[in-house]
Amino acid sequence: MNPLLENLPRFATSGAVAMNPGLDRIRALLAAMDHPERGMPVMLVAGTNGKGSVASMVAAIGTASGLRMGLHTSPHLLNVTERMRVDGTPAPAAWLDATLDRYRPDLERIGPSFFEVTVALSLLWFREARVHAAVVEVGLGGRLDATNILEADVSVITSIGMDHTDLLGATLPAIAREKGGIIKRGKPVVLGCMESDAERELEALAGAAGAQVLRGDAVVLPAGLSVDLPGPHQQRNARIAVAAARAWHGAGITDVAVRTGLEQVRALSGLRARLETVSTSPRIIVDMGHNADAIATALAALSDDPVDVVLLGLLRDKDAAAVGRVLQDMFHGDLWLVSTPGDRGQSAAELAKGLSRSSARLFPTVADACSEMLRSRTSSLCIGSHHVAAEILQAFPE
């Protein structure tokens, strides 16, 4: 990674200590870049789970419609340029390095976070690449997230669950209020399925803003459509994405574009690590699920053809007890635990205590676990953190 970026405060590795909520820094950064966000049609996608998939689906549908689509997502897995894609292709590394050098004085003056810089860089790349529109995945929350500087034409909230409660609130309505902060006055908002108390909170916020509420579950997908991502939850995400794309581009989103975009979403958007099979012998699946709800969803999707092993690495600020209950209820194979890096990380032994699973097998690194998978020929689901997903993708390149 570029050294300038690497030295910026980053939530993915340092946690809340890297958080400095507010929009002043991103506003100053965009001003220094001559406002690349202006005049660019934008969709914001927030939610506890599913937002990366939905954002990627909308971008893929747009590309299939003949639009040149920008897509900003986070976190990245293998290279920071994954965060800034145009029609599925990451920004060139040479462009990133040259642009960081160009704006180094501004970065030193403004003091932004890693996330704020990558959002600004994405928007700048999209302008230089002459995109027709951009889909931007919200980082954490919504109301005070750097992406909320954007005047989105459509906002999407995929789900509301109990995650990042130390930063977003300890109840579903409180979390909904934070994520609902992306709703724009007079602009439509698309909602996924969620608990009724969270939905009521979002409906109230939309009503106060005069924003039309649309629902993903009202969409009927084209007959015979096969979404290029496994699991029934991706069918739900697909309906949200179609509702959002149609709210954004109307009649320009044809059934043909919907079918092409959703059946080729990985190729058209660059999406990775959504129940992705990286090896067939032995069977190894990697997923970005990082909280109890997401891990439960992944296990449910594999219920008809379960794996023998779950390899789990979990960051320290996740609810290990809730994940432990999911595993107790839904998984009856072998549990392997792996250490995660950084200030937010924890050792496999610490995770075993948090899960109350003293019988779990412990590994210091993902590489050690991969060696054992290959030796024992066990079918495995690797999940719990983007750190785990990234190392699995490195171990099993395309």
Q: Terminal Cα separation, in Å? A: 21 Å
Strand percent estimate: 5-15%
Number of domains: 2
- Give the radius of gyration: 20 Å
Q: In the CATH classification, which architecture of the largest domain applies?
A: 3-Layer(aba) Sandwich
DSSP helix count?
18
Give average pLDDT, whole number.
Answer: 95
Overall spatial form: globular
Got a strand count?
14
Uncertain parts: none
Describe the structure.
This protein has 398 residues and is of the alpha/beta class. The chain has two domains: 267 residues, UDP-N-acetylmuramoyl-L-alanine:D-glutamate ligase; 120 residues, Protein-Tyrosine Phosphatase, Chain A (Alpha-Beta Complex), CATH 3.90.190. The chain contains 18 helices and 14 strands. The strands form two sheets. The protein has an eight-stranded mixed β-sheet with strand order 4-3-2-5-1-6-7-8, sandwiched between helices. Strands 9-10-14-11-12-13 form a six-stranded mixed β-sheet, sandwiched between helices. Helix 3 packs parallel to helix 7, helix 4 crosses helix 11 and helix 4 packs across helix 12. The model has no long low-confidence stretch (mean pLDDT 95).
